[in-house]
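Final report, closing paragraph on structural work. Over the funding period we assembled a curated collection of sequence-structure pairs, and we close with a single example.
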Amino acid sequence: MASASAPTSPHATPEPSTQAAAPAADDDHDPDDEDTTETPLPVIPPEDGTAAPSGTAPASAPAPAHAPDHTAPTTPVPAAAPAPALGDTMAARARSLLVPVADAEPRPAEPPSVAPVLPGRPVADRPQVRAPGPVQGEQYGVACPWCATPNNPDRHFCVRCAMPMTLEDRSSVRLPWWRRLFNRNGASPWAGDRPRLRRTFDRILSWVVGAVVLTLVIIAAMNTPEAIQATRDHFAKRAPVAPDSFAASRSYPGHKPELAFDKINNSWWGPGVSQSGEGEWIEARFDEPTRLLDLIITSGTSVRPDQLNQSALPHRIKATITLKDGKTTTREITLDQSSGAQRRAFRVGDVTKVRFTIESSYMASGSKQVSIAEIEFFGRSSANST
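Its predicted structure, as stored:
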């Protein structure tokens, strides 16, 4: 350190001092830098016209061969350049180790060895149109009357169109009536257009089904007016209908047949005979033909339950209906053993007379007679016609 701080003589040539360089290296030593510790960094040579620094003189510089001449003229030595920092030295060393490499060029895509294809789909073979084959038979054979193809004389059908080789005139042949009915033009179907063969059972079944359908159509046509009338009666509004005259086989004194149609339920009609009164009847008559829809019959002498045992009650009644054309029809009416009115459907048209004949009775005895408190008829209301 003493020799480094001494003044430099202008006539003396500076000599390299290894002792001065060592402390400088010790001052800048970094214990964490293993590369610098093991391998000394190369010394950067001074630029032209500049003396090397005293502390960084190369170790391989040759020693002077002779002693310096102190009488020779000397040149002033320029000031020594400052030593480069350790970081700059490392950067320079790193730059010296770098090798320039050109940028990688994109490699062209290699063509695939096998071109991609879609999954295979089964495709049906296209039909091939076959041209007519070689004409079979003799060169001057019998010509087909349909396509004029020569055929062998022993063939009955053409080898090309499969049509018969002979043309028969069947215009004079009379066909059966069923063939004339369904095949009016009499033309036979061509080959390939023939209908399927029908067995005898199929024909019989077809005729049976046709007959059943025809019968149902006829029945429906005949009953259509009645069906329409029944529909109108079902939805029609009811209105009471009063008979014009009355009659009975016999009557108990004071209980005439008019009392059964007076719309008062505490007056009654009785035949005046004991037991069930079988065969006795009461009749209602209408001057004009009337259509009746419903019927209400009240059994006994009253609608009160405590008076139910005072007389026998009708059980089965046969209603004989006389129409305006003189025809008669009958209805069976079955009543319950109860007090009060009992409604029954009684749909009949153009009625002129109705007779109710007693066939059996409830609670019949020798001290009781059968009685009917009220019989009411209901027809179509006049409001339905507006």
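The chain has six helices and nine strands. Confidence is low (pLDDT under 50) at residues 1-39, 47-65. We thank the funder for supporting this effort.
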